[in-house]
Records
---
Amino acid sequence: MKRSVLRVVGRRDTPRPPDSAAILAAMPIPVVVLDAEDRFRFANDAAEQFLGISSASLANLRLIDLVPDDNPIFLLIRQIRAAEVTISEHDLSIESPRLKKHGITVQGSPLAGEPGSVLLILQDVSAARQLDRQMSFRSAARSVAGMAAVLAHEVKNPLSGIRGAAQLLETSVNDQDRELTDLIRDEADRITALVDRMEAFGEKPVDRGAVNIHRVLEHVRRLAKSGFAADLRITENYDPSLPHVNGNRDQLVQVLLNLVKNAAESLTFGNTPFGEITLTTSFQHGVRLSVPGSDQRLHLPLAVTVRDNGPGIPEDIRDNLFDAFVSSKPSGSGLGLALVAKIVADHGGLIEVDSRPGRTEFRLFLPMLSETP
């Protein structure tokens, strides 16, 4: 009778576990370790990029050298040390002359056998939130498109008749009444133009291909300097090695011209002395983002920035800036930035805005032409 044998795997058959520091170093999210005096004992590559400081330089710093002592992250660290448990905090802001991060999730844990030492995982979820908001922009754009279709059918035809009647009346009225016919005609044209702008929100396929974003920016700069930004300074800071954007040239011109025009109007209406618009391009290695509700992942390494030194965007509309019919201009329709957000979303990209007095920055993140999935 055969006996069953339970084979015990010995130590020689067990693979050697990797060093814990090597595991942390390879993690794609920022990880730092602070000692009991909040000095940086460890920072992986992702943390170096997140903080914008090399690990060698961090070794000579304490957390308070980067963040003011009243920042909530210090309370989080004290709670971790006191309770010796893992604690997470969401939607934190880390802001100082050296560092500016918003919408940060921080998870901290005590290190066993290292009294007072704390491991922190830092995650910037602002881009994911912006992507989620941009999906909302697209839904809002579809609503505007539906409204435009109704208006085009029910309003534009009667408007054409009203305008024609006003033109006929002009030939048989006196000069005083002709002012009224001119007013009727001008208002009919204004409403027609508004409906035409709304029709741009329609769901049409985007014909995309290789686009040199620097040629687009140069075209926009020439248009601006020959018109609305003739008296303003426009500077460029380009990465010449940037690959082509996978996009539609005319639509990207429309997006960037709108942003540059808004920047110029902000400088002009705000009476900004030495007004300046800065156009910047760069390659961002970044992270891939998952699209809510699908298996799609976005890789958006091409960054285009339009920055001005104007008075900034009013705080009461900042969170809804890309919504339709939201505008800070007395005569604005509130469709320009909503259309910008839709075009960027149609390209599979992202748009962000950061504004404060003296500095407003719109950042576009776009896909490159030959990216691999």
Note: Residues 126-154 form the longest helix (29 residues).
---
Amino acid sequence: MIGLRRVIAQRMSEAKRNIPHFAYVEELDVTELESLRRHLNGKLERGAPTLTYLPFLALALVRVLRDFPQCNAHYDAERGVIVRYGAVHLGVATQTPDGLKVPVVHDAQGLALWDLAGEMRRVSEAARTNKATRDELSGSTITITSLGKLGGIASTPIINAPEVAIIGVNRAIERPVVIDGAIAIRRTMNLSSSFDHRFVDGYDAAAMIQALKECLEHPATIFIDT
């Protein structure tokens, strides 16, 4: 192995060997989110880039991290300290012809939905075409990852060290669920996340994902700045 593939292999091996991963999977009802997404996409001009679930997830994550700053952090192994960040520099795991890259949306907490979606597309495309700058490929404080339509039921994403958390999105499907004693067809999706168990307790990891679930299942709350 040479080049980027060798670097990827080394980083993945080091992360898996050195970080005790705590995996947490939660099911979401994204029926209302899908309705909002379709509504917003329906107002776009023909040919304009459409919204996926990722910008909504990113925006909700920015909101939730205010209450869980221990998840928006780096572990500085040389100094033996945890560095928490006020700003959210969002890594977006991106498959490229050269392998997996993680371009970064810096200061995601200052972006609205459409701006966030546009910036995520821009840095991902730059990574795929080898046009991303060094700054655009470094400095992330937390990463989100998605396999898109190949997302499966659940996954166990590997943490992008020195970060302490990664949030993964699985495939959204319609299926029958029981609501108030009646069967209804709802659109569901799983979040598969991993946390560095040295610094993020299982309870806090679960609480963060539950808060994220609450935002995404009631998408209006994503846009309420409390």
Note: The helical segments are 3-18, 31-42, 53-64, 113-128, 202-217.
---
Amino acid sequence: MRTYIQINPVDNVAVAVQDLHGGTSLEFGDKVITIRQDIPAGHKIALQDFEKGNDIIKYGAPIGHAREAIAIGSWVNEKNIKTNLEGLQKYEFNPHPITEQPSRKSLTFKGYRRKNGSVGIRNEIWVIPTVGCVNGIVQRLADKLRQETQAINIDAIVAFPHNYGCSQLGDDHENTRKILRNMVLHPNAGAVLVVGLGCENNQISAFRELLGEYDTERIRFMETQKVSDELETGMEFLRELYTIASLDKRTEVPLSELNIGLKCGGSDGFSGITANPLLGFFSDFLVAQGGTTVLTEVPEMFGAETILMNRSKSKTVFDKTVHLINDFKSYFLENKQPIYENPSPGNKAGGISTLEEKSLGCTQKAGTSAVRDVLFYGERLTSKGLNLLCAPGNDLIASTALAASCCHIVLFTTGRGTPFGTFVPTLKISSNTPLYLKKPNWIDFNAGTMIEDESLENIQKNFIDYIISVANGKRVNNEKNSYREIAIFKTGVTL
């Protein structure tokens, strides 16, 4: 097993693949470097002497500058490196030529073809509250249906409590309505019971109008203040919905119907070397099949946003991407918060020191395909290919937004580990093997072997096969553990 990785030939730092002890000698080309202190795996090694202010290069681009003089062989981390980013920036459209993979559209998976032509990869029954006041009711209803039926021919019966639906104004109220609408219409649900209270802002009558055309046989509504026994009435609805949905069967559909969300969280120094590039490979692969991928986490594009902007399919898409980035920066400024101090304590402990470093690793998940469209929060997919989506870096909010955009699966890379799942299968990919071995009940696929002895071709093939198996019905860990929740973006006043 190698001891270090220099990601790009122009990089002036390398990444330790294993813990390095002070005094160890490493060969870098035609020179030998002595490690000056213990350096943890995933962290950066100085390949040259730095003076204060010198740029530090990783992924072939600056990830910040030296706060102080740094000697060759030293540990480079958040204590001696500082971001180069500041203020708002102006952008110019500078499109780069893009060579996309040849299409292989013969691949298929077995999904559920819905009445409106959309395809789901699960056949579940969901109980969704319009407002947090009825959270207890929806949970009891889902529990009772599970006890009655053992979910025969149904993949899962799930309630999705949340805190909102009332006492919200403006964008917050609309964000709640849009996310809940998109859940109700999601093809992974074979049937949905929407449960309201009656006096909330998110009134059922207005919410029903927001849905537009929908399958009235499979989407039902109950307003609890208007019925004498909400559990009895709710169970009557659910039994009818169960009878209908339990008759659904999987059929062969082209892989081009698959929509995949791309997300990372609890990243480490290996995320941008193993797990994120693996998602980038898969994104390019799926786009070549005519499928769709969605990248979000706007604050984790800062510092690498021009890479995505220059891959815009058109000037219109470029302008929407600029809008996406600058609106989010303005959101930080309006709340009197720093724009560029994103890496979390876990990120820093794992070897990520600045936002540029995090962003250059994060955007690896988008591969090399052209950016076809930009979605704002609460919007649903309309364009095939690679899309960008407006959402924060917060794992639960961003993953919910990806699922609500009509993604069937969220691919979630991590170097630290996390158990959560949103309302679609949330597949965890570890950036390193120790995490995979430590948390087999969290992690679904190990990308850590990319820096070990396994061939890249074999890893990529296994990854494609694994995702297709999930689309065919194989459950991932968050589903096995019943870790399923939603989180909605909030920016304003609570009454």
Note: The CA atoms of residues 147 and 365 lie 40 Å apart.
---
Amino acid sequence: MKVRKAVIPAAGFGTRFLPVTKAMAKEMLPIVDKPTVQFIVEEALASGIEEVLVITGKGKRSIEDHFDSNFELEECLRKKGKNELLQLVEETTKINLHFVRQSHPLGLGDAVLQARAFVGDEPFVVMLGDDLMTDTTPLTKQLMDNYQKTHASTIAVMKVPRNEVSSYGVIKPDGKVDDRLYNVASFVEKPKPEDAPSDLAIIGRYLLTPEIFKVLQHQKPGAGDEVQLTDAIDELNKTQRVFAYEFRGKRYDVGDKFGFLKTSIEYGLGHKEVQGNLKNYIVKLGKELEAGKVK
């Protein structure tokens, strides 16, 4: 069966970005001029996904507004002949998006469970907004292509420094199927570095079969007293094969302040409007740091 649908959980409080996320959706924080959630939606579309469901929560209305039409703005830009800006605005309305609200933020697993009616009995992709991926072929498309061979749930993983594994779900490999595809003995949510079964961490892209919903229905809270998707995947792996696929492209972690700043700088260096000035500023700032003029 073809993979047609994607789910983007966006119901969290965004506490790592307080105070700005007190009144603003974390997913709308811009990387130069584009909100992070739009990068995720664009990856889905570039991968051939036909329908996208965004799981929202309290204070997330701005995400819906962003992907809605704005007649007054569009007319203003059209009358002033600002066609490039008009095209940018109109592009956000050409996406087949659906929205559903998670009334209580009970964890990622519970957020995915809200997509059950939307997904039905089809395989689907879960895409987390904290991870922006770049590669010749989008990571979501890589997972979808792999599904056509295995017809099994497949979780994207990537090697991370051993001292950082406690921030991730981690796999215990059980041999390799090919160069990138692993059989998995178990999935462990946020293990201590000394207890981690590997340095292969789950990085925010999941291709799942619909049987995951039956597991999530009965999944008890785990780490952080939340319903963990990793725990449900580990349970699913006991009844049907779940693979791990190693991603070797570039991953940007926008889930914390430092990662967000790094991403903004790197994206800015490739942005035609600001790359020249930004590069010159970085060179100048580097010289000032060396001279001790900046603390």
Note: The longest helix spans residues 275-290.
